[in-house]
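Obj.: predict assembly geometry.
Materials: sequence records (below).
Method: joint structure prediction, all chains together.
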Amino acid sequence: MGSSLSSQSGRLSSSRPDIAEAYRLTASEAMAKIRRGDMTVEEYAQSLLLRIRKRDDVVKAWAYLDPDYVIKQARALDKIPEDKRGPLHGVVIAVKDVIYTKDMPTQHNSPIYRDDHPAIDSNAVAVLREAGALLLGKTTTTEFAATLTGPATTNPHDSSRTPGGSSSGSGAAVGDLQAPVALGTQTGGSTIRPASFNGVYALKPTWNSISREGLKIYALIFDTLGMYARSIDDLVLLADVFDLQDDDESDFAGLRGAKFAVCQTMAWEFAGPGTREALDKAVTLLRGAGATVEELRLPSEFDDLPELHETALFAEGRVNFLAAHRVGKEKLSPFLADHVVNSHGISRKQQLQAFDAMAALRPKIDDIAGQYAAILAPSVPDEAPEGIQSTGNAIFCAIWSALHTPVVNIPGFQGANGMPIGLSLIAPRYRDRHLLKVSKAVGELFEAEGGWKRVPK
Amino acid sequence: MGSSLSSQSGRLSSSRPDIAEAYRLTASEAMAKIRRGDMTVEEYAQSLLLRIRKRDDVVKAWAYLDPDYVIKQARALDKIPEDKRGPLHGVVIAVKDVIYTKDMPTQHNSPIYRDDHPAIDSNAVAVLREAGALLLGKTTTTEFAATLTGPATTNPHDSSRTPGGSSSGSGAAVGDLQAPVALGTQTGGSTIRPASFNGVYALKPTWNSISREGLKIYALIFDTLGMYARSIDDLVLLADVFDLQDDDESDFAGLRGAKFAVCQTMAWEFAGPGTREALDKAVTLLRGAGATVEELRLPSEFDDLPELHETALFAEGRVNFLAAHRVGKEKLSPFLADHVVNSHGISRKQQLQAFDAMAALRPKIDDIAGQYAAILAPSVPDEAPEGIQSTGNAIFCAIWSALHTPVVNIPGFQGANGMPIGLSLIAPRYRDRHLLKVSKAVGELFEAEGGWKRVPK
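Observations (raw structure tokens):
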């Protein structure tokens, strides 16, 4: 996908194994090591590049990666005096290829934008860059982050399976230790689903809490910048830089005595055995840790959420893919062309009813979720399905995309084939920091006791 | 502002006065003339460029304009075989400088983006270009279309007065016959206010009915692409190309027998004598034409709309100007820096309450507006104020921006100093085509009888 890993320049300047294996570190760990002077950004970048070189033939997570440029950036970062270094100094970030980067192409996995290279940074990328992050490259996506057809990327835990989508490359790269953190986007389930399939953490923050400027638009009222990591601490790092702030500090003081809700959701019929077992086990683990877990059945007015989401989604796609349709109809997937010509026959009235009904449900879910430390719910139907053609079902994620709530995927469980399964934690809107705090405790529990162990290849 | 009018190439190839004065035509008239073979696109462009050259020293509507490139585009359009010409063949369009154009800089009137030139087309520009429009240049704006401080642009009807903002250049260019149509944006009153001040028509369509991709973001939930013209027919042309469609064809069959509402709005205390007289006169004219006009007092739950709008606006600015603040705080206006550091102390709770309260009002205004051919309301407090430092008060427009309804500014009235005053017509969401149909009849009446006459200099 346009990456040029064969032209990699430079070598690992140290033969110390801790540095050669630095690709295994979380961003927080790597940053600490760099801060202590135990590793340069260049050494860290070299470690990641070697990992990528070793694994790219199988995982194919990259739409664009220029190793020479990565090293050049790393050297520039190493030259910054210590007192001038940003809060993300040396953090290496992969960026989904629907997010604009002024120094790399942005191609949206669309032939219309092949090799397109607008010199513009998305708002999020500008913030990360200014904070001292090193942008590793662009990761694969389904077409415009809007179709269900996977790119060539495979699941790092089983290359015969999908890594999910639409943030396929970001989920796979973080799952495969090719990047410690990555940016994705979510309109339906494009951040949380790949997180579950690849066995990593992900945060879909409150809608519109981080600027979406410079993200390709599918549906304005849903699209959200998402982020992947292998630890909650890394997500907290990013939340700091993006100025994600709750009104009040979280009163969560650990699992013991905390009250959770477990919610099968109106999409429960789609849950396979892997997710059903994971949810049961999660409840048992939480209770074992001293938490209360209540079963939550959402009021019936939430029942239509999946349909409301789809109606608004298709109606917005009609608007936002109009230009691509006009410019290169023959290069647009029929699925998206159908949006533009309104093959689904969605009336304005239906569109507005969906838009208004979802709006009315948002304060209600805030009230409900506010009664708990978090709501625990499925992230996906089951482990990653076989094949890379389809990126899987997003119904469990779409609910929360529609409701604008923050969601964290917590890995830790596994399915019948030993593939990772994650679960979602949900909080009211703008309780992102609280949710991360809860997620840290829950993540430690699930990772320790859930049954799935990351087995780095 | 970076325009280079002195380097203009080419000359008017005809000495026929009708072509020399082609700049006076509406886009529809110019297109018809071109279609008949009575004028080339190049001749038309030359006429506009001469007009601009004559007037630019006073009006200063342009942030960027390259006459050589305009002529080059015009010649390319003239070479397209007749059967391959697009629906906007030869329509010349000015583009507000917060809207990305791949072949021109986009500078947002921000020193952070001075001479910035990302090679990317906004969705709307791509659609216009593909339809055969000629992009004339970039028009001035307040900083990021988000401050109240005017650029150097003056009102074409009195250079001691503001053309309004934030779409200052687009409003002034169309008012001054420098462009037949122009794109603007509206978050508060940025499209409708300049339309009133410059004596032109403008459509702020239903929120999210035209893709906002490639427009600088101030507030996602309000920002809307707007458009200026000197005739409703021209706005209809654009509505066609942007695929603006209502569910049902309008049943409006002329003013006689039609039922209008006149609504002073909760902001009436801000209305000056010019607007009060205009509204009275408008009602008299409509009744004289056989229409019924009922006084509409919005239910009290609408009273807080201006405050709700401002709360959500500032809260969104906090998010969307974060990158600019990080990259170049010292180059950001204090007004916008205050958004980012939340000087207004807006809590997440207040932000969500504003967001949800506005959402709840939208279906209600649809129901109310649906009972009338249109709601008639003030566009602005009065004629354009003196001075160009402040772009004026947007409160009358912000109401409808918050409610997502389409609005058309209808010119035709004048204030105490002979400056134009327009009035707003409002319809339910996604009744844009109906609103344009009503606006055509109302516009003809107001332009004929309202008292203000366009006096081309």
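Conclusions so far: Residues 6-10 of chain A have pLDDT under 50 and may be disordered.
To do: check interface contacts against the pulldown list.
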